[in-house]
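Task: sequence design from structure.
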């Protein structure tokens, strides 16, 4: 429900961003740079991480956008729901599972994390360069208290 008379009753982020065009452009630019860049994660996996994070922090608008986008990148809706509901037992790639578990820690425990409490080692290639896999975690930092 919107409390702004200039917005529709079902206003969401997309409506609010029309009030601040600069913020809208910045958000689109950030998403393009962070989620559509080349790297070890596919756009579908990046969207899955975001959908998972926004489900954890109960942001319905962002969850809706990123879960729908993940589905547009060929992630099955039922598989997505099952993964988000039962990540500990879901059948997923080990490295993607490690990223999702790390995203959960960053989202729910960021202020209590220490260098020893979380690691990306399971998702890094042995002896290889550190992949650019940090950008899907940026919502974790923005959405924690």
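Answer:
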């Amino acid at each position: 429900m919107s409390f702004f008379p200039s917005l529709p009753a079902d206003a969401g982020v997309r409506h609010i961003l029309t009030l601040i065009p600069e913020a809208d452009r910045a958000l689109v630019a950030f998403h393009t740079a962070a989620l559509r860049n080349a790297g070890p994660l596919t756009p579908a996996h990046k969207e899955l991480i975001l959908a998972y994070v926004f489900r954890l922090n109960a942001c319905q608008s962002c969850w809706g956008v990123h879960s729908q986008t993940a589905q547009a990148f060929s992630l099955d809706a039922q598989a997505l729901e099952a993964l988000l509901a039962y990540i500990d037992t879901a059948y997923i790639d080990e490295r993607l599972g490690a990223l999702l578990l790390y995203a959960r820690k960053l989202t729910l425990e960021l202020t209590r994390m220490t260098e020893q409490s979380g690691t990306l080692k399971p998702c890094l290639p042995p002896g290889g360069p550190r992949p650019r896999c940090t950008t899907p975690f940026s919502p974790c930092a923005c959405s924690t208290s």
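The first helix runs from residue 13 to 17.
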